[in-house]
What we know:
Blueprint: E1 2-5, H1 7-25, E2 30-36, H2 40-53, E3 58-69, E4 72-79, E5 88-96, H3 100-111, E6 116-124, E7 135-139, E8 143-146, E9 162-167
Parallel strand pairs: 2-3, 2-5, 5-6, 6-7
Antiparallel strand pairs: 1-9, 3-4, 8-9
Helix pairs in contact: 1-2
The protein binds inosinic acid and magnesium ion.
Amino acid sequence: MDLLISAKEIANRIAELAQEIGKDSGEQDLDFVVVLKGAIYFAADLSRALSTSGSNSVHLHFITAKSYDGVTQGEVKIEGQVQVKDKNVFIIEDILDSGNTLRKVIPYLKEQGASSVKLVCLLKKHDIPDIKIDYLGFQVPNHWVVGYGFDLDQKYRNLPDIRIYKETK
Ligand code: IMP
Ligand code: MG
C-alpha cells in the first residue's frame, strides 16, 4: 500500500496543532470528545503533545460513531455517554469525508449541554460547507486511507503511517 503520510510527518503536524490549540486556550483545562475508534491514536498523541507544549490538562471523553461497512456508508449511529454540560469541548475526529458523522456528533454534544464545540480533524478529504474544522491536520486526496487508526473492516488501524488502500470513485 502506498505511503501517504509518514509517522514522522504525523508527529510533526500534531506538535504544531498542539502548539496552536495550547496558544488559543491559555492554561485552561481541555475537554476532548474522542470519536472512536478511528481517532484513538490521534487523541493519544495530541493530548500528550499538549502536555509537553503547555500547561493544559486534558480530560478525555469517548463516543463511538459507526457509519461504514467496508467502504460502503450507512446510517450513522452514536454510542456512549459524555459529561460535557457547560464545557468547551473539542471533538477529536479522524477524518471528514461526507460530513454525516459530524452532522450527528456536533448536535449530540450541544444537546448534552456543551457550551461550545470546536472541531479538531486529522484529515479532510473535501470541503464540506456546513462543517467548519477549527484545527486541521492534513488535506488528503479522495482515496481510502488506512493506518494510524484508519481501518478497512477493522484491519490496519495499528500501522504507524497513513497509507492509501485503494482509489474511490
Ligand atoms: P463521514 O461521515 O463520511 O464524514 O466519514 C467520517 C468517518 O468515516 C470517519 O470518522 C472514518 O471513521 C470513516 N472514514 C471515512 N473515510 C475513511 C477512509 O478513507 N479510511 C478509513 N475510514 C474512513
Ligand atoms: Mg471516525
